[in-house]
Amino acid sequence: MHTNWQVCSLIVQAKGEHLQDISARVNAFSGCEVAVSDTESGQLIVVVEAEHSETLMQTIESVRNVAGVLAVSLVYHQQEEQGEETP
């Protein structure tokens, strides 16, 4: 059985005064984790994991649509297929 595994990292630019609320909302999305939060610059570093690319894209779009988010930049993306190899 093969499984697909995808991970990406995002830089989220947001309004600094709302960063804590935005961070909580992003952390609530399935597969999302805010790794770094900097109130002074208004930036979050977010790691997103998903099994399918469509799910990954929907999650990125959901992050983009959080109130107070100004911009979302994809910084890194990796996709791997895992499973048993048969001769």
TrEMBL record:
InterPro entries: Chaperone_NapD_NO3_reduct. Gene3D superfamilies: 3.30.70.920. Keywords: Chaperone, Cytoplasm. It is found in: Cytoplasm. It comes from the Bacteria. Chaperone for NapA, the catalytic subunit of the periplasmic nitrate reductase. It binds directly and specifically to the twin-arginine signal peptide of NapA, preventing premature interaction with the Tat translocase and premature export. Interacts with the cytoplasmic NapA precursor. Belongs to the NapD family. This is Chaperone NapD. It comes from Citrobacter sedlakii. The lineage of its organism: Bacteria, Pseudomonadati, Pseudomonadota, Gammaproteobacteria, Enterobacterales. The gene is napD.
